[in-house]
Specification:
The protein is α/β, with parallel strands linked by helices. It is built from eleven helices and eleven strands. Helix 8 links the parallel strand 8 and strand 9. It starts with 7 loop residues before the first strand and ends in a 13-residue tail after the last helix. The mean pLDDT is 94.
Length: 283
Amino acid sequence: MYNSISPLITAEELILLNRSDIILIDARTGADAFEIYQKEHLKGARFVDLNRDLAAVTENPANGGRHPLPAVEDFSKTLSSIGISASDHVIVYDDKNGSNFAARFWWMMRAVGHEKIQVLNGGFQSAIQSDFPTSSGIEIFDKTTYPVQKWKLPLAEIEEVEKARKNDQNIVIDVRDKNRFEGLIEPLDLIAGHIPGAINVPLTENLDENGFFKSPEELAKKYKAIIGDKKSENTIVHCGSGVTACHTLLAMDYAGLPIPKLYVGSWSEWSRNDREMALKENK
């Protein structure tokens, strides 16, 4: 799904834009994210909440993982409630180099066909360092109507992942850090390990030493070497709950590569469904 606009924008480029022509979205997360937003956010930014607005959290993560996608009808209501129209230029940021929820929001916007959507490279911190103005409290804006019909970017369900991991024409990429992949630690899910057959390409490898995305050329070289001759429709990317995987999907799009399939349920779903798992052996 080709898009003419870069998925990333720098703080310097953001400052040069007329702020009346853009909609800023604050996608920082955490237990006190809304309080932090109210204390200080980029001027004009509207807040979105991970669990309330951009996921359909269920009592049992075995059904879709910890952060399943909301129904498209509900995402339509969310976009309308935060005043976004289909023609708007939207820029989203978080405070975790895009790996927090900015990239997930970017993916969801692209998945409903929104064209002018970008992630702030370097996040909130880079804007502050570039003297972008901030404000406090809650922003006032008009609501809109944003019709959404379906997710247009490719998704993979658990049964497809089961087949793909055993097929040498497919590749399953796990973007979690190496220690989680190897089952040495597991801070979020019940079982430590990974999907057998998956390869580990930590999302942190998308960034340079300063926390900014590497150049499109570097990223293209990296992912072309990893994927080889595999087709994009045979490439599945996942993480713990379908959030940080979007960081790698964004990196691949930035590199000019096709956006592969997202397995939203990820390890949080897989590990709760009596599937084969690669676990760290106790010695």
